[in-house]
Amino acid sequence: MIGKKFLPKSLFGRALLILVLPTVLIQLVTAFIFFDRHWENVMRHMAGTLAGETAFLVHQLETMPPERQSQIARDFDESTGIYVFSDTLASFKPRYETSEFPEFQERLRARIDNPFTVRTIDGGNTIEIRIRLKTQVLRLETTVKRLESRTTTLFVLWMLGASALFLLIAVIFLRNQIRPIRKLAEAADSFGRGVDITDFRPSGADEVRKAARAFIIMRERIRRQLRTRTEMLAGISHDLRTPLTRMKLQLAMLSDPEAKEEFNNDVQQMEHMIQEYLDFARGEGREEAVRVSLRELMESMVSDYARMNAEVTLAPGSDTQMSLRISGVRRMLHNLIDNALRYGKRCVLTLRVASNFCEIFIDDEGPGIPVEKREEVFKPFSRLEASRNVKTGGVGLGLTIARDIAQAHGGGVTLAGAPGGGLRVIVRLPL
Question: Which of 346, 362, 350, 363 is nearest to 308 (CA)?
């Protein structure tokens, strides 16, 4: 669980981690082996070589007569590239002794018994070795390269350069591979919100192309099912309304007032039920989504209810532009507002806009709905009242239709308690 918390959330980040982590580990292991083996051996060899050359010169100067010492120093300088100088005994200063180049000092101490000091001069680019002999102080100067290998710096630079180049190639490659997946996700999200992307084409790796083709096939099947359902319901609507019209004609010819009233109530109830069934099954039909101001849409609906003397108000707030199927959203809000007015007599609409979604609150002053039954009322034909009297409520499809329309836009509808008592209906839509 702790490891998952620190893992990248995106597929791009995780794929990049899978590629980079083994490379970094391999380079760390290689660097460790290089420094532990190669570097140690090279430094030991370089220190031993310089200590041997220095000890050789010291032994030669101590055993040769003074007249030949200058020639030996010149020959040594020319053959080794180490500058040789002769100073007085007073120039030997123990304070010059440092802990620099411990490997070299240890090896030199093992070869000669003379006191010596080792330090760097000239900004750290030159090594000065002072060795006290019997009659003089031997001063040797050579470059730091004789004891420090530049291979380390080159190795680190090559390792970092190769890692950076590999990381750049991996980022470019992974971006190209992730792009088709993002396009597929955007197409699926847009289709779920009712916004169709016509230029979507399968691309990327074989697996991504296969998933994209499956999405296109699924999208066409859903469209075909919706068309079939809409066409079938259009035929059912015609078939049902024809006998219903004949029943209305027969109703007009009835002479018994009491029977006529009962028959008229049955016909109105049947007509209302048929209309709600068709609205539920038809959904949003083939309506195209357009970009509109959600607040202006809500204001127009409040104006419609004001003309009917209904107490519907819109609270001050923000606004947002979004793609909506206008007729579907109006039908959804009409169903929710009608429910609020039926049980609460008045309702208040509130629009709240967040970073990636918006919420519409419909608050009423009615008795509300118990918490344990708030999901049950969204089931088709579900009513808290057992009767099917349309005067006391619909046929149990209002909230179902509202949630169906909201889900078709990629959102949802939930119920909660209103702040002032009653019921709050929350419609959430993605931006």
Answer: 346
Whether the per-residue pLDDT at 225 is higher than 50: the answer is yes
Is 0.70 surpassed by the pTM of this model?
no
- Residue holding tokens 């053959």? 79
Give the residues across from 84 on adjacent strands: 140
Closest CA to 167 of 273, 47, 55, 20: 20
Fold category of 2-149 in CATH: Beta-Lactamase (3.30.450)
Q: Which of 421 and 300 is assigned the larger pLDDT?
A: 300
- Antiparallel, parallel or unpaired: β 357-364 and 346-353: antiparallel
pLDDT of residue 234: 66
Looking at residue 183, what is its pLDDT? 85
Distances (CA, A) of 354 to 289, 319, 429: 21, 10, 10
The fold adopted by the segment(s) 288-430 is Heat Shock Protein 90 (3.30.565)
Q: What is the Cα–Cα distance from 314 to 316, expressed in whole angstroms? A: 7
- Categorize the per-residue pLDDT at 1 as very low, low, confident or very high, splitting at 50, 70 and 90: very low
Tokens at residue 66, please? 């003074």
Ranges of each domain in the chain:
2-149, 288-430
For 182, 356, 384, 401, the CA distances from 381, given in Å and listed in that order, are: 39, 33, 10, 11
Confidence (pLDDT) at 4: 60
| pLDDT tens digits for range 138-148 | 999 998 888 87
